[in-house]
Design brief:
9 strands; 4-stranded antiparallel β-sheet; Nuclear Transport Factor 2, Chain: A; alpha+beta; Zincin-like; about 20% strand; Peptidase MA-like domain-containing protein; 5-stranded mixed β-sheet; binds zinc ion
């Protein structure tokens, strides 16, 4: 039960409570959810609403099963027309993936002693794309593109190249990559329940579909930003590295290790001059000398990938490590840190006793040399 108090009502006398037939009914909402999940399971007991029909078709195309939904409470008061948004816990499973579970908003309409689902999302809650809009699903070579109204071909091509490029550095035997491509940036905001502008300038990010550490990991594309050229490929290979190594939810990886390694993998596949790949970092070194410390977690935007100067500094640590020991040693060091070994101990074990302090000092000298 959601109680709303009116702070602005002042001395007005509240009207006596009346029975409102449109007040959100948990029982009717739960029955509406059952009608929908039955339809997802192939048991149709009623005519579907447009929102339900879209979701049922999407679920079939993606291979979603085992859906269950539990009504929690009303997230908004009922509008005069009997519509409201409710908090609902949904769990689902895509064939071949780990199960997912998340709290979402569901729009209901209620009239004549029954409630139906009118929409998914809203009330600032996240909502998966498959509940939000009609999608097409394209698959090839372990890459799946779930796309809303966008041509999936360039994303499929870049996804396949990303898998290939990641494999040039690390072993990824059973590569599975899922790209979700909403129609635009505002749909991406809606999917994650974020405020407007949360993904401005962000090309893509990688994370669990339900925000839980154990949830299935997808790459989410901002089609208004990413493009289809060389930079888009670098972003996708960077994100695919995160996906391949389960980096998004690994608490052991400092940001410079996670982000620098993903750029190391992505940029090994390119032949770019430093004036392009490290322009901002080297400009800073020229202006004010090398940073005193390796990039800290606080240097990175925790919400989204913005590929700023801090990414270039982190990548240059990995470029240096790569020049010292090659990609196999770099991968061993990354894996050791990811498994919980402290950076200093992992460096000593991989690079013949190299301490974190010595690496910092050598990297600073390296930066000065590159900036000349
Ligand atoms: Zn990243």
């Amino acid at each position: 039960m959601l109680l709303v108090f009116c702070a602005a009502c002042g001395t007005h006398v509240a009207p006596p409570p009346t029975i409102n037939s449109a007040a959100p009914s948990p029982g009717l909402a739960a029955a509406a959810l059952t009608t929908f999940t039955d339809a997802l399971g192939g048991r149709f007991s009623d005519v579907l609403t447009p929102a339900e029909k879209t979701a049922v078709l999407n679920a079939k195309a993606i291979g979603i099963g085992g859906v269950s939904m539990r009504y929690i409470d009303a997230a908004t008061a009922a509008a005069p027309d009997g519509s409201w948004t409710g908090d609902v816990i949904i769990s689902w499973r895509v064939r071949g993936e780990k199960p997912a579970e998340e709290q979402i908003g569901v729009g209901f309409t209620q009239s004549g002693g029954a409630a139906r689902i009118s929409s998914f999302g809203g009330a600032g809650q996240p909502v998966p794309l498959w509940l939000l809009a009609p999608v097409t699903v394209t698959r090839s070579g372990g890459v799946t593109v779930i796309s809303e109204g966008r041509d999936p071909a360039p994303y499929l091509r870049m996804g396949l190249t990303a898998v290939q490029q990641v494999r040039e550095t690390i072993a990824w035997p059973d590569a599975q990559l899922v790209l979700e491509v909403p129609a635009d940036e505002s749909t991406l905001e809606q999917m994650s329940g974020s405020a407007a502008g949360a993904y401005r300038g962000v090309a893509a990010f990688t994370g669990p579909v339900d925000g839980r550490p154990r949830g299935p990991v997808h790459i989410f594309i901002n089609p208004d930003v990413i493009g289809t050229g060389r930079d888009a490929q670098i972003v996708l290979t960077h994100e695919a590295t995160h996906a391949a190594t389960n980096a998004a939810t690994n608490p052991h990886l400092p940001a410079w290790v996670r982000e620098g390694f993903a750029d190391y993998v992505a940029l090994r596949a390119q032949d770019l001059p430093l004036s392009v790949s490290a322009d901002r970092a080297l400009a800073t070194v020229r202006k004010s000398g090398p940073p005193k410390t390796l990039p800290t977690d606080a240097d990175f935007n925790s919400m989204a990938e913005d590929f700023g100067e801090e990414y270039q500094f982190a990548w240059l640590v990995w470029r240096y490590l790569g020049e010292m020991g090659g990609p196999a040693a770099a991968t061993r060091f990354y894996d050791a840190v990811g498994a919980g070994t402290k950076v200093d101990a992992a460096l000593r074990a991989t690079y013949g006793g190299l301490t974190e302090a010595a690496l910092t000092s050598q990297w600073r000298t390296y930066l000065v040399k590159l900036a000349r």
